[in-house]
Amino acid sequence: MAELVFFSGTMDCGKSTLALQLDHNHAARGRRGLIFSRDDRAGTDRLSSRLGLEVLAREVTDATDFWVDVTGDDAPVDYLVCDEAQFYSAGQVEQLARLVDEAEIDVFAFGITADFRTRLFPGSARLIELADRVEVLQVQSLCWCGARATHNARTLDGRMVVEGEQVVVGDVGSGAQVAYEVLCRRHHMRRMTTAVARALAPADRLSFDLPG
Ligand SMILES: Nc1ncnc2c1ncn2[C@@H]1O[C@H](COP(=O)(O)OP(=O)(O)O)[C@@H](O)[C@H]1O
Ligand SMILES: Cc1cn([C@H]2C[C@H](O)[C@@H](COP(=O)(O)O)O2)c(=O)[nH]c1=O
User: Fold this and answer.
1) Given 136, 168, 185, which residue is the final one in a domain?
2) Residue 100 carries which DSSP code?
3) Which listed residue (84, 135, 163, 165) is catalytic?
4) 165 is catalytic
5) Looking at the CA of 168, which ligand is closest?
Protein backbone atom coordinates (compact mmCIF):
# COMPACT_ATOMS: atom_id res chain seq x y z
CA MET A 1 0.00 0.00 0.00
CA ALA A 2 1.34 3.45 -0.88
CA GLU A 3 2.32 5.81 1.92
CA LEU A 4 2.56 9.51 2.65
CA VAL A 5 5.67 9.98 4.78
CA PHE A 6 6.87 13.29 6.22
CA PHE A 7 10.58 13.41 7.06
CA SER A 8 11.07 16.41 9.28
CA GLY A 9 13.71 18.12 11.36
CA THR A 10 15.44 21.43 11.81
CA MET A 11 17.34 23.18 9.04
CA ASP A 12 20.66 21.52 8.18
CA CYS A 13 19.85 18.09 9.62
CA GLY A 14 20.20 16.18 6.33
CA LYS A 15 16.68 16.16 4.86
CA SER A 16 17.68 16.97 1.29
CA THR A 17 20.54 14.48 1.46
CA LEU A 18 18.10 11.78 2.56
CA ALA A 19 15.69 12.84 -0.21
CA LEU A 20 18.43 12.29 -2.81
CA GLN A 21 19.45 8.95 -1.30
CA LEU A 22 15.88 7.74 -1.19
CA ASP A 23 15.34 8.75 -4.83
CA HIS A 24 18.56 6.98 -5.81
CA ASN A 25 17.58 3.75 -4.07
CA HIS A 26 14.07 3.63 -5.52
CA ALA A 27 15.27 4.55 -9.05
CA ALA A 28 17.95 1.85 -8.81
CA ARG A 29 15.15 -0.72 -8.43
CA GLY A 30 13.47 0.47 -11.60
CA ARG A 31 10.80 2.61 -9.96
CA ARG A 32 9.87 5.89 -11.68
CA GLY A 33 9.89 8.95 -9.49
CA LEU A 34 9.32 12.67 -9.88
CA ILE A 35 11.25 15.19 -7.80
CA PHE A 36 9.63 18.41 -6.64
CA SER A 37 10.97 21.31 -4.60
CA ARG A 38 10.10 24.90 -3.84
CA ASP A 39 12.51 27.81 -3.29
CA ASP A 40 15.64 25.67 -2.88
CA ARG A 41 18.62 27.81 -1.84
CA ALA A 42 20.46 26.73 -5.01
CA GLY A 43 17.76 28.26 -7.24
CA THR A 44 14.61 27.25 -9.05
CA ASP A 45 14.10 23.75 -10.47
CA ARG A 46 16.67 22.31 -8.07
CA LEU A 47 16.96 19.98 -5.12
CA SER A 48 20.33 20.54 -3.46
CA SER A 49 22.12 19.06 -0.47
CA ARG A 50 24.87 20.73 1.54
CA LEU A 51 26.92 17.59 0.89
CA GLY A 52 27.28 18.89 -2.67
CA LEU A 53 24.81 16.82 -4.64
CA GLU A 54 22.19 18.67 -6.67
CA VAL A 55 19.56 17.38 -9.12
CA LEU A 56 16.93 18.90 -11.35
CA ALA A 57 13.50 19.15 -9.77
CA ARG A 58 10.10 20.43 -10.76
CA GLU A 59 9.52 23.80 -9.11
CA VAL A 60 6.36 23.98 -7.02
CA THR A 61 4.49 27.30 -7.24
CA ASP A 62 1.18 28.53 -5.88
CA ALA A 63 -0.35 27.32 -9.16
CA THR A 64 0.94 23.75 -8.89
CA ASP A 65 -1.75 21.09 -8.79
CA PHE A 66 -0.01 17.83 -7.92
CA TRP A 67 -2.99 15.69 -8.91
CA VAL A 68 -3.18 17.23 -12.41
CA ASP A 69 0.62 17.27 -12.93
CA VAL A 70 1.28 13.73 -11.78
CA THR A 71 -1.73 11.89 -13.20
CA GLY A 72 -1.22 13.78 -16.48
CA ASP A 73 2.46 12.84 -16.76
CA ASP A 74 3.76 10.99 -19.83
CA ALA A 75 4.36 7.69 -18.01
CA PRO A 76 3.11 6.05 -14.82
CA VAL A 77 4.70 7.37 -11.63
CA ASP A 78 5.64 5.15 -8.67
CA TYR A 79 6.79 7.73 -6.15
CA LEU A 80 7.28 11.44 -5.50
CA VAL A 81 10.10 13.13 -3.63
CA CYS A 82 8.86 16.50 -2.34
CA ASP A 83 11.49 18.75 -0.77
CA GLU A 84 10.98 22.05 1.08
CA ALA A 85 7.44 20.81 1.68
CA GLN A 86 6.95 23.37 4.46
CA PHE A 87 6.40 25.90 1.67
CA TYR A 88 3.56 23.94 0.04
CA SER A 89 -0.03 24.98 0.70
CA ALA A 90 -2.43 22.88 2.76
CA GLY A 91 -4.39 22.20 -0.43
CA GLN A 92 -1.26 20.91 -2.19
CA VAL A 93 -0.59 18.52 0.69
CA GLU A 94 -4.18 17.27 0.32
CA GLN A 95 -3.47 16.64 -3.39
CA LEU A 96 -0.42 14.58 -2.36
CA ALA A 97 -2.55 12.53 0.04
CA ARG A 98 -5.06 11.91 -2.76
CA LEU A 99 -2.25 10.65 -5.03
CA VAL A 100 -1.30 8.16 -2.31
CA ASP A 101 -4.85 6.95 -1.71
CA GLU A 102 -6.31 6.97 -5.21
CA ALA A 103 -3.30 6.49 -7.50
CA GLU A 104 -1.17 4.28 -5.21
CA ILE A 105 1.85 6.62 -5.50
CA ASP A 106 4.31 6.77 -2.61
CA VAL A 107 4.96 10.33 -1.46
CA PHE A 108 8.13 11.13 0.47
CA ALA A 109 7.96 14.71 1.74
CA PHE A 110 10.80 16.56 3.46
CA GLY A 111 10.70 19.81 5.36
CA ILE A 112 11.19 21.81 8.50
CA THR A 113 8.20 21.83 10.80
CA ALA A 114 8.41 25.28 12.36
CA ASP A 115 9.49 28.75 11.37
CA PHE A 116 11.82 31.17 13.18
CA ARG A 117 8.97 32.05 15.57
CA THR A 118 8.38 28.34 16.37
CA ARG A 119 5.08 28.41 14.48
CA LEU A 120 4.21 25.54 12.14
CA PHE A 121 4.41 26.23 8.41
CA PRO A 122 1.06 25.57 6.66
CA GLY A 123 2.49 22.73 4.55
CA SER A 124 4.11 21.07 7.55
CA ALA A 125 0.99 21.41 9.68
CA ARG A 126 -1.11 19.65 7.04
CA LEU A 127 1.54 16.96 6.57
CA ILE A 128 1.57 16.25 10.32
CA GLU A 129 -2.21 16.02 10.18
CA LEU A 130 -2.37 13.73 7.13
CA ALA A 131 0.84 11.69 6.92
CA ASP A 132 0.84 7.95 7.48
CA ARG A 133 4.16 8.44 9.25
CA VAL A 134 6.21 11.38 10.49
CA GLU A 135 9.90 10.49 10.69
CA VAL A 136 12.31 12.68 12.64
CA LEU A 137 15.75 12.48 11.13
CA GLN A 138 18.31 10.44 13.04
CA VAL A 139 21.28 12.73 12.46
CA GLN A 140 21.05 15.43 15.09
CA SER A 141 21.98 18.99 14.34
CA LEU A 142 23.45 20.61 17.42
CA CYS A 143 22.99 23.88 19.26
CA TRP A 144 26.20 25.78 20.09
CA CYS A 145 25.87 24.38 23.67
CA GLY A 146 26.08 20.80 22.40
CA ALA A 147 22.43 19.90 23.03
CA ARG A 148 20.24 18.62 20.23
CA ALA A 149 19.02 21.51 18.10
CA THR A 150 15.23 21.50 17.92
CA HIS A 151 14.43 25.03 16.72
CA ASN A 152 15.35 27.34 13.86
CA ALA A 153 16.40 30.90 14.64
CA ARG A 154 16.57 33.72 12.09
CA THR A 155 19.45 36.07 12.77
CA LEU A 156 20.29 39.61 11.76
CA ASP A 157 24.00 40.22 12.18
CA GLY A 158 24.15 37.23 14.52
CA ARG A 159 21.27 38.31 16.77
CA MET A 160 17.96 36.49 16.78
CA VAL A 161 14.94 38.28 15.34
CA VAL A 162 11.30 37.48 16.05
CA GLU A 163 9.55 39.77 13.56
CA GLY A 164 9.35 39.42 9.80
CA GLU A 165 7.90 37.47 6.88
CA GLN A 166 7.48 33.76 7.45
CA VAL A 167 9.35 32.89 4.25
CA VAL A 168 12.86 34.24 3.70
CA VAL A 169 15.09 31.80 1.81
CA GLY A 170 18.50 31.57 3.45
CA ASP A 171 21.15 29.37 4.99
CA VAL A 172 22.80 28.50 8.28
CA GLY A 173 26.34 29.75 8.91
CA SER A 174 26.28 31.67 5.66
CA GLY A 175 27.78 34.88 7.01
CA ALA A 176 24.94 36.75 5.32
CA GLN A 177 23.36 39.62 7.23
CA VAL A 178 20.10 37.67 7.45
CA ALA A 179 20.84 34.03 8.19
CA TYR A 180 19.65 31.09 10.26
CA GLU A 181 21.03 29.20 13.24
CA VAL A 182 19.71 26.02 14.82
CA LEU A 183 19.33 26.11 18.61
CA CYS A 184 18.01 23.97 21.45
CA ARG A 185 14.69 25.20 22.88
CA ARG A 186 16.33 26.67 25.98
CA HIS A 187 18.59 28.92 23.93
CA HIS A 188 15.90 29.70 21.36
CA MET A 189 13.61 30.92 24.15
CA ARG A 190 16.43 33.05 25.55
CA ARG A 191 17.38 34.28 22.07
CA MET A 192 20.91 33.16 22.81
CA THR A 193 22.67 32.63 19.52
CA THR A 194 26.36 31.79 19.15
CA ALA A 195 27.23 35.47 18.78
CA VAL A 196 25.27 36.43 21.89
CA ALA A 197 26.77 33.58 23.94
CA ARG A 198 30.24 34.54 22.83
CA ALA A 199 29.65 38.15 23.81
CA LEU A 200 28.34 37.15 27.24
CA ALA A 201 30.94 34.61 28.34
CA PRO A 202 34.66 34.22 27.79
CA ALA A 203 35.38 31.16 25.66
CA ASP A 204 37.28 29.38 28.47
CA ARG A 205 34.15 29.41 30.67
CA LEU A 206 31.95 27.70 28.12
CA SER A 207 31.53 23.94 28.50
CA PHE A 208 31.16 23.36 24.78
CA ASP A 209 33.43 24.87 22.14
CA LEU A 210 31.75 27.63 20.22
CA PRO A 211 32.22 27.53 16.45
CA GLY A 212 34.99 29.87 15.26
N1 LIG B 1 31.58 19.10 4.81
C2 LIG B 1 30.71 18.21 5.30
N3 LIG B 1 31.12 16.99 5.66
C4 LIG B 1 30.25 16.07 6.16
N5 LIG B 1 28.95 16.31 6.31
C6 LIG B 1 28.49 17.51 5.97
C7 LIG B 1 29.34 18.53 5.45
N8 LIG B 1 28.58 19.62 5.19
C9 LIG B 1 27.32 19.29 5.55
N10 LIG B 1 27.27 18.02 6.02
C11 LIG B 1 26.10 17.27 6.51
O12 LIG B 1 25.01 17.66 5.75
C13 LIG B 1 23.91 17.97 6.61
C14 LIG B 1 23.03 18.97 5.91
O15 LIG B 1 22.45 18.30 4.82
P16 LIG B 1 21.23 18.89 3.99
O17 LIG B 1 20.64 17.72 3.28
O18 LIG B 1 21.68 20.02 3.15
O19 LIG B 1 20.28 19.41 5.18
P20 LIG B 1 18.77 19.91 5.19
O21 LIG B 1 18.15 19.58 3.86
O22 LIG B 1 18.13 19.20 6.34
O23 LIG B 1 18.83 21.38 5.45
C24 LIG B 1 24.56 18.46 7.89
O25 LIG B 1 23.76 18.21 9.03
C26 LIG B 1 25.80 17.57 7.97
O27 LIG B 1 25.47 16.35 8.59
C1 LIG C 1 13.23 28.84 9.87
C2 LIG C 1 12.84 29.37 8.53
C3 LIG C 1 13.46 28.92 7.38
N4 LIG C 1 13.11 29.42 6.18
C5 LIG C 1 13.77 28.95 4.96
C6 LIG C 1 15.29 29.01 4.98
C7 LIG C 1 15.67 27.93 3.98
O8 LIG C 1 15.65 28.51 2.68
C9 LIG C 1 14.53 26.91 4.11
C10 LIG C 1 14.92 25.67 4.89
O11 LIG C 1 15.81 24.91 4.12
P12 LIG C 1 16.68 23.69 4.73
O13 LIG C 1 17.04 22.92 3.49
O14 LIG C 1 15.80 22.92 5.67
O15 LIG C 1 17.85 24.28 5.41
O16 LIG C 1 13.47 27.57 4.81
C17 LIG C 1 12.10 30.37 6.08
O18 LIG C 1 11.75 30.81 4.98
N19 LIG C 1 11.50 30.83 7.21
C20 LIG C 1 11.84 30.37 8.44
O21 LIG C 1 11.24 30.83 9.44
Assistant:
1) 136
2) H
3) 84
4) no
5) 2
Residue 141 lies in a domain: no
CATH classification of the domain holding 33: 3.40.50.300
The structural domain count of the chain equals 2
How far apart (Å, rounded) are the C-alpha atoms in residues 109 and 140? 19
Instruction: Supply the range of the domain harboring residue 187.
Output: 151-205
Average pLDDT, the chain: 95
User: How far is the centre of ligand 1, averaged over its atoms, from the C-alpha of 50 (Å)?
Assistant: 5
Q: What ipTM does the predicted assembly reach? A: 0.97
Segment holding 122, helix H or strand E: helix 122-130
Measured in whole angstroms, the distance separating CA 144 from the mean position of its chain's CA atoms is 20
pLDDT in tens, 31-66: 999 999 999 999 999 999 999 999 999 999 999 999
pLDDT score, position 184: 98
